[in-house]
Amino acid sequence: MLIERLLKVALLGSEWVLYLLIGLSIISFATMFERWLYFRRRTGDLGELRRELSKHLHAANLGAAQKFLDGHRAIEARVAREALRWASGGPEAMGDAVESELARVRKELEQGTNFLGTLGNNAPFVGLFGTVLGVIIAFSALGSAGQNTGAMGGVMSGIAESLVATGVGLFVALPAVVAYNVIQKRIGDIESGSVSLTKLISAHLKANPSLGAAAAAEERTELASTPELEDPLPSQPLTEVA
Fold first, then answer.
1. Do the domain assignments include residue 236?
2. Which residue of 54, 66, 89, 178 lies most exposed, with the fewest beta carbons within 10 A?
3. 226 lies in a domain?
């Protein structure tokens, strides 16, 4: 009874699997384009970034270094800016700040990668499911044909068409897998570049202790220039109760 019901469902056809794979492919390529645009807008010359940052740190000009990092579009500069902000706390404080910033940035970097990874791993199985449905339909038609040898050509044609679903599944999966690996490689490069810049700042702090003192003084100046919040409820004079 159950097999007969499932057979009726299978005989509805496998064309919908192809439409599903085509829709997933469109979403996949849209995700790839969005990720490419995201990284393209946030990519810079890491070598130039290191040289300019090292030049400002060597001159103990933290203000210029901060301004340079603020104007740079690279994600590594964003992480290094956070490290420089905590330079007064020493290398340990900087390390904690960088880890916190990298954890926050990683959510942005990995956006869409779960979909690409899942699609790359499972799209061939979706195509194979469509092929199985097509084969079921072909063999059902073969059983209905009985001794009619002229219907064999249509059955074989149906089996051949069902294999198209497997091919489409592979076509959808391969670009997704490639894009996923490229994005993971790019994320690894960004993280290693961010750590490299942090180590550079830490090295300058250790080699020049006055740089840490300058960072602390600049931080105190910034805190002193921050206006204090006024008390929204000023105290009223107490009146004696008769």
1. no
2. 178
3. no
Question: Which pLDDT score is estimated for 207?
Answer: 79
Domain that holds residue 158: 9-217
Q: Cα(37)–Cα(52) distance, rounded to whole angstroms?
A: 26
Q: What is the pTM of this model?
A: 0.77
Three-class DSSP category at 90: coil
pLDDT at 88: 77
Q: What is the pLDDT of residue 229?
A: 45
- Distance of alpha carbon 17 from alpha carbon 187, whole angstroms: 33
Q: Does residue 30 lie within any of the structural domains?
A: yes
CB 201 within 8 A of CB 87: yes
Q: How far apart are CA 85 and CA 78, in angstroms?
A: 11
What span, in angstroms and rounded, lies between the C-alpha atoms of 13 and 24?
19
Low-confidence ranges of the chain (pLDDT < 70): 1-13, 141-155, 157-158, 210-242
Interior/surface letters 185-220, b for 16+ CB within 10 angstroms, e for the rest: ebbeebbebbbebbebbbebbeeeeebbebbeebbe
Q: Where are the beta strands (DSSP E) in 60-102?
A: none
Integer angstrom CA distances of residue 188 from 51, 81, 98, 110, 183: 21, 19, 15, 11, 9
Please count the CA atoms within 13 angstroms of the CA of 6 that sit on its side-chain side: 6
- Give residue 223's pLDDT: 46
| Rounded Cα distance, 119 and 123, in Å | 5
